Structures are given as C-alpha cells and as structure tokens.
Amino acid sequence: MSTLTETLDEVLVEEAVGNNNEIVLYNDDVNTFDHVIESLVKICDHTWEQAEQCAILVHYKGQCTVKTGELPKLKPQCASLQDAGLSAVII
Q1: Strands annotated E in 1-91
Q2: d(CA 48, CA 28)
Q3: Are the C-beta atoms of residues 68 and 19 closer than 8 Å to each other?
Q4: All residues at 6 or more sequence positions from 48 whose CB lies less than 8 Å from its CB, including other chains
C-alpha cells in the first residue's frame, strides 16, 4: 500500500471516530413547528428545508438526529437547543 493511501485511510478513520456524537431532538407537546424550525436554523445552521424535515421526523417518529460531530462543538449547540425549550440530548 502506498504512503498516500495509508495517510488517507488514517484521516478517514480519525474523521469517523471524531464525528461519532449526535444531538438527538425529541418530540414534545409544547413547541410549535415554527419554533423548532427557527431554532434548528439559528442554532444548528440548518437550511430551512433541513430544519423542516427534522421537525416532521421528530413529530412523526418521536426523535431525530439533528447534528453530528465532535463533542466540544455539539455541547454548546445542544445547550442552546435546551435553552430554547427543546428536548435535546447528546448521544
């Protein structure tokens, strides 16, 4: 195996390991679709369409992964979602 291939394989493994955390948003009977969508756009940098799809999934499936990444980046986003009154956890 060439050095370049080995290096690329190492980078891919490091990226996969570093991005194994998720923010999961749970359904509730309190927040409106608009509030959930606006929060995801503002806090998680979703497009309006992404946020709308997540809100629909949360409503019908009970939960949805709304963000994946490294824990230090996800912690403040999850806290902001919780501060906005949403039920979110990092897994």
Answers
A1: 21-26, 63-69, 87-90
A2: 20
A3: yes
A4: 37, 41
Q: What is the CATH number of domain 20-90?
A: 3.30.1390.10
pLDDT tens-place string over residues 25-77:
999 999 999 999 999 999 999 999 999 999 999 999 999 999 999 999 999 99
Q: How far apart are CA 91 and CA 23, in angstroms?
A: 7
Give strand pairing partners of 63.
26
Left if phi > 0, otherwise alpha if psi is -120 to 50, otherwise beta: which for 73?
A: alpha
Looking at per-residue confidence, does 24 or 11 come out higher?
24
